[in-house]
Design brief:
Strands 2-1-3-9-4-10 form a six-stranded mixed beta sheet, sandwiched between helices. Strands 6-7-5-8 form a four-stranded mixed beta sheet, with helices on both faces. The protein has eleven helices and ten strands. It is α/β, with parallel strands linked by helices. Strand 1, helix 2 and strand 2 form a beta-alpha-beta unit. Helix content is 39%, strand content 15%.
């Protein structure tokens, strides 16, 4: 006798199972709806590469960015900080160049990388990568000892006009951002910048120590370390290179602009990605980094370091770097320090 029953064809059982999973995924957003483009998201660990040793400004910014990416769930994967300080940033950029088209690797960079290319100490320029954002405005202060006879920015420039070599000025690198800031302010006042006396120190800290010890007359460097010396009453800051006065301890310090000198200069910090990122990948990082720039914790960190918010998206960053490149190249050419003029 033929056995009859309600058995289900195995193929039909699999088909119903697949349809159920598909319907569930569609309803919960796990699959894109018809006609919708899937947005790119990081699929593996994100690397934040820093061209400095742990403990510096770029490193601090990278580690805060790492925490925000994870704590705010801006990415679904993890993020790590890689310090590659060798070669004044060249090691970081060489590593980034090896990661072409990989959107999971970002380098924390600054104006130093632009300057290093022009002076020939670095092989790659910003257009060899994908500039993603400027995030931080870091400005430069011109400081003398508290008992110095130089009382203002105008006083300094008048003395330099009479004798450019009469003031020993501590900087950290010929052709570096502090040197450029000095030249821009002096040039705007009609000083012969080729005769400026600029002893070079290993670090900003060494230059400040030399200032306090009476070995140099003027120190030029980032305003963050100078703010502590100002608060302690050890220095007088004659001018800063920001467009408007900063807050907190530095609120009493005048800008070059308000002293009638075109000395505005921003030593920006930001992020570059490898060459070859897609439009979707750039759009993702635009969105995330703009969100970071508005985060309260990020803003608190800026204030603590005497930094200013200076966010630009990828499109505006490229335009900004193009214009700045021409200005930096021309100044370095004037000083005889430009090795690459493209």
């Amino acid at each position: 006798m033929e056995q009859r029953g309600a058995s289900i064809n195995p193929a039909r059982r699999v088909s119903r199972h697949v349809l159920f999973i598909f319907a569930y995924a569609l309803a919960t957003g796990m699959l894109p709806t018809p006609g919708a483009a899937a947005e790119w998201r990081p699929l593996s660990q994100v690397e934040l590469v820093v061209p400095n040793a742990p403990g510096g400004g770029n490193d601090a910014a990278a580690r805060l960015l790492q925490r925000l990416l994870q704590d705010r769930q801006m990415i679904a994967t993890s993020a790590i900080v890689l310090n590659k300080p060798a070669g004044g940033g060249s090691a970081t950029l060489s590593y980034l160049a090896q990661k072409a088209s990989d959107p999971h690797v970002l380098a924390v960079v600054s104006i130093t990388q632009q300057l290093n290319y022009i002076t020939g100490t670095q092989a790659q320029r910003y257009r060899d990568f994908t500039p993603l954002a400027t995030m931080i405005g870091d400005f430069i202060g011109f400081a003398v000892r508290a008992d110095s006879p130089i009382t203002s920015g105008k006083d300094l420039l008048e003395r330099l006009k009479k004798d450019p070599s009469s003031i020993a000025t501590g900087i950290t690198a010929l052709g570096g951002n502090n040197h450029i800031a000095y030249v821009l302010a002096a040039r705007a006042a009609g000083v012969d910048t080729r005769k400026l006396k600029t002893p070079v120190f290993q670090s900003s800290g060494d230059s400040i120590t030399a200032l306090l010890g009476g070995h140099v007359d003027l120190h030029i460097g980032s305003v963050g370390p100078l703010a502590k010396q100002l608060e302690a009453g050890k220095v007088r800051i004659l001018a800063i290179t920001s467009d408007q006065r900063l807050s907190g301890t530095l609120a009493t310090v005048p800008t070059w602009k308000e002293q009638g000198i075109a000395g505005t200069f921003n030593t920006w910090r930001g992020l570059w990605g490898p060459k070859g990122l897609t439009a979707e990948q750039i759009t993702f990082w635009d969105s995330v980094l703009e969100r970071v720039s508005r985060d309260p914790q990020w803003k608190e960190n800026l204030a603590a370091n005497q930094w200013e918010s200076d966010y630009r998206n990828s499109r505006d960053t490229l335009k900004y770097l193009d214009a700045l490149h021409v200005e930096l190249r021309d100044v370095l050419k004037e000083l005889g320090l430009a090795k690459k003029l493209d």
